[in-house]
Every structure is written in structure tokens, then in C-alpha cells.
Amino acid sequence: MTVKASPRYSAAVARQQPDAVDRITSQWQDVRPDVDSSPIAVIGRVSRLSRLVDRRLTESFARYGIESWMYDVLATLRRSGEPYELSAGDLVRHTMVTTGAITNRIDRLEQRGLVERTSTDDRRKVIVRLTAQGLAVVDEVVVAHMATERDLLAALSPRQQDDLAKLLRTTLVALGDA
Fold first, then answer.
1. Structural domain includes residue 97
2. Which residues contact 50 (CB under 8 A, 6 or more apart)?
3. Contacts of 25 (CB under 8 A, 6+ apart)
4. pTM above 0.85, yes or no
5. How far apart are CA 173 and CA 115, in angstroms?
């Protein structure tokens, strides 16, 4: 059994110990001091953080027998409010995947009984709706998901989390993710 360090202790250790990115930037400074490798300090950490976060979220979702893409679709429908439905096109826009990918995802979720398709007067437009089972699953998973995300951020104070969120938002908006 592993014992978790307290968030306060973890934050103190993180300030003292170099990480893998520190080693990478140091190596670049040694072999190419003429090249400014400082962007690695942010980009490298964001990249590594993304992989670590994805791993933890994957483990959390697996406890419920779903994958992250499943949660993404189910949560998008849940957040839309009653009657928990969106057009396939809206799902594409909200989940940032291709039309082909969303069709495949809807098919797989429908096979599991988590969503259902309905038609409109315009046969080209498909509405995707959470089933009662899908609603129950997403409502259960969201609680664990938020707890996992809180745990991932436990080394940061609420103020640090707020500051980081603002900085990341600024970067995302500047890159066109509005």
C-alpha cells in the first residue's frame, strides 16, 4: 500500500526537486548554449502533464467500464440540459472530433445502450440523446471524475489553480481555441 504525501509536502518537494524538463533544458544549455531553450520549460511541462493527466483519467474511467471519449460525449450531452440531446453536428463542434469519429462514437455508445438516435423532419439531421442508462452512468462518473481532477491539482493552492487557469486560458485563446 502506498501512502500519499500531503499536498503541502508535495508542493514543497516539487519546488526543491528538479523534474525531467529541468534535465532536458540543462542538456540543451550544455550542448547548444546559443539556442534559447526556455520555451521547453512551459511546453515540455504542459506536454508531460497532459500525458500524466490522461493516464490518471483513463484509470478513473476504467473503473466504470468506459473510456475518456465515452465520457466526453456523455458529459457533453448531460451538460446540454434536459432533454440531454444534441444534433450530431453540435456534438462534433463540442467534442472537437471529425464527423466520421463522432458517428463511430455514437454507434458504439448506442450499442451499449447509453445513447439513442432520433430523426427529425430533415433526414440529414440526426439527434443524439442520452438514455436513462446513459444519464445514470454519466451522473455517477462525473462525481469520481471531479474528485480525480481535484486530486490532480492538490499540490496547488486555490490561488495557484486560479492563476494557472487564467494563464492557460490566455494561451488557448491566443492559439485560436475560443
1. yes
2. none
3. 37, 38, 40, 41, 44
4. no
5. 32
